[in-house]
Amino acid sequence: xxxxxxxxxxxxxxxxxxxxxxxxxxxxxxxxxxxxxxxxxxxxxxxxxxxxxxxxxxxxxxxxxxxxxxxxxxxxxxxxxxxxxxxxxxxxxxxxxxxxxxxxxxxxxxxxxxxxxxxxxxxxxxxxxxxxxxxxxxxxxxxxxxxxxxxxxxxxxxxxxxxxxxxxxxxxxxxxxxxxxxxxxxxxxxxxxxxxxxxxxxxxxxxxxxxxxxxxxxxxxxxxxxxxxxxxxxxxxxxxxxxxxxxxxxxxxxxxxxxxxxxxxxxxxxxxxxxxxxxxxxxxxxxxxxxxxxxxxxxxxxxxxxxxxxxxxxxxxxxxxxxx
Amino acid sequence: xxxxxxxxxxxxxxxxxxxxxxxxxxxxxxxxxxxxxxxxxxxxxxxxxxxxxxxxxxxxxxxxxxxxxxxxxxxxxxxxxxxxxxxxxxxxxxxxxxxxxxxxxxxxxxxxxxxxxxxxxxxxxxxxxxxxxxxxxxxxxxxxxxxxxxxxxxxxxxxxxxxxxxxxxxxxxxxxxxxxxxxxxxxxxxxxxxxxxxxxxxxxxxxxxxxxxxxxxxxxxxxxxxxxxxxxxxxxxxxxxxxxxxxxxxxxxxxxxxxxxxxxxxxxxxxxxxxxxxxxxxxxxxxxxxxxxxxxxxxxxxxxxxxxxxxxxxxxxxxxxxxx
Lengths: 324, 324
Fold this sequence. Notes:
Order of helices and strands of chain A: HEEEHEHEEEHHHEHEHEHEEE
Oligomer: homodimer
CATH superfamily of the largest domain in chain A: PurM-like C-terminal domain
Strand order of the largest sheet of chain A: 8-10-7-11-9-12-13
Largest interface: A-B, 67 and 66 residues
Strand content of chain A: 25-35%
Shape of chain A: globular
């Protein structure tokens, strides 16, 4: 399939976003957004680095490429609107595979009312997909990881470790309960966009998405905000059937497992009730997992308290794309 | 170099665009643009498909990646402002090579007062660079290829065939005059941003950038506008030293040579003087090369009239990325 054929195939017949002036079909797309701030993020998936065809169908590859970007938009407290996609695809992929990738992208886009406004596909030696996502947020309401303050409540949405558990199952023939749930969490991650888009009523909230494990994201908030975060390990929410895994697996996956795409953040105690109401309204599981305190001598750290009340420093280790 | 180190290295200490609210450093970037429409385009370069290291240094690869995108923004009559870049880089590239790519991107960005607001670098089997460029244009003044009308004057900026000639020279040891000029046109294309950004005062102008040869771009305008374009071959502007090439080379390069990144467009006779003034003010060579007429029975075509007054249909053939 040549470039031209592909872009015609993926061109939407109907666009969802009213701010769009011109979609696919000219040198570039045009949109108008005078009321809100514009949010942009780019993310790249490469075969063999970020995913393997052994456990991911073309549909999943497409779906996850967009979901990872939507997660970055959500982590800004914003709502996604548009995406542009660049696909490098080897000759070994059939037109049907390419169509599968597109169906996955399209399915994730549909779930978030997003429009594809630019695309480029080129043949190359290995599959890689770079997505740029564009979202909108009320002026001055973009949420940064740098605004956590001592006294804040630390919270997380959903359950952690599911994606890592799903990845484990996809590479294993063992008997597991709840297999479909975990595998779906890995291959078709659901993003907390609806929740994120409702956060505008809060005065202040620090926010990060959990793409590289909570240990990593918590350290990013601590560094950016120059504070210390304390997490009580027993409070980290996991699915009931998570108990089927070994203690070591549970520990590693919930702390360092990547790509859960849940949200980690902090709010003042005063605003906790507002946040809880937003969570209820958007049917988002929300859990207090710790608190924020001031750092001694600029030593910004994340402290993990285990079930025996022992404190250890939680480091940024664990999941990296390269070491997988 | 890991992802984190790279993004820190490329992070600008000072941003040029006043509309930027938050640059690199959080989950996504934020900008605010209430006065103008927003333009976005994505373009991907892959080693071995779009360029070869034999003739392109890492600096040139970076420079051209961004330039190709800026050209798409210019082709909308818009001014570039931001870019996001996704780089897949093989282990065989050193940190110094990666730095060279960045320097090339950065140099092109500087020339157009653009800010890097998002980046992602991942190791992979072959070098590919996907750039998303974002620009701004006065509301309702984005320029489409679909608005050419019978009676319009067809124009082109600069000279054509230079990039193809440069590519030929870079692969040849022969003696040529003006070698540096042609090689530069291929490796460090200059984009008509300044000219494009001044077109707002025109009521109507159809516009395309010449990335795949004028034959291709003219057909795109004819199809999108449902008109017939007539081009007089002898009027197509070429550099004086272009005469050193064979007649066949000249013919092929100026009609089908890719990546000159000049602008092809059409305006009404009434607005020709306004356009000429903009060209003078921005020191942009501007040449009338033909005219637009209505298509008989929806048969939208491009007619080429040669020096002997013979007419032939100019087809969309020639340069494609794949066949190179």
